[in-house]
Amino acid sequence: MIIKMKKLVCAAAALLLALACLTAGAEEAWLTPIADAGEALLFDTHNVTLNGRLTFTLDGERFKTADCIYIQDGFNSLWDVRLTTPRGDHDQDTGFTVTANEGDIYVTEYYWPGLYREGSDDEQNTLVRRSLYLDQLVKLCRGLVPQLETGFADRVTLTQDDEGQLTSLTLSGEDIPEAATGLMNIGAQLLIKRYFGQELDDAGGYEPYFGMADYFSPTAALLNCTRSFTPERIDLAVRLDSEGKITLMEGDINLNLDAGQDGMHKLEISFSVAVSKYGGSEVAPFDPDGLEIWDGTW
Hints:
The chain is an alpha+beta fold. The protein is built from five helices and twelve strands.
């Protein structure tokens, strides 16, 4: 479960970055640098630190908050995640830390602070590993830019200060072309397949086998029951520094979810991500001193 939650946070972060790149880069040609900076951050940045918070709300009820620090240092990386989940009249705190040292993976979990688990994975020196499928998806997004450049200028606000230029954007659902919504859905399905190994059709496709209430958590219900989503409102702000690099991304995204037999639901995602230490981030080798290896399953 802890590995799945790590993958969920990864997938959500990657999707939000991609969403910001698509929508922000599509408004006017002079906003193209935001898309360029977002693509560079996702696929071509080898040393950087991200510090952020994501809050997820389903039908008006908060079901997950994630406070995350991610550090990329060449082929070494560090995820530190603290999760808060409402449980009745109180919040349950969980979390984990994942350290990757050139393909060797070490995981410690909130509930077992004296234990760690080890494994391995393909080496990765960027936030998102490129693939043929992802490259084609990026090209499709870029291909939409000329069609979307007109008509959105009145929804963009630019603010210049000592920290760089802040671009703010507000869109309602009817502002977003159907083709862009389709690409967002394809991107979400790709991330779910990549991080969870799950195809939408495996959960019943057009006719899901179970309703959302049949799953033990909102996260599981969303993964198994959502057929598609359409944006209702998107508020985004992206800051670029004097070198054209992203230093801040924040926003609120309201989505209408089609859950098949369960009808429509509303998912709200609020996020704020500070990006810093380009070229100055460090990840130390994992130190097992004082820890015991855990051979069981989390």
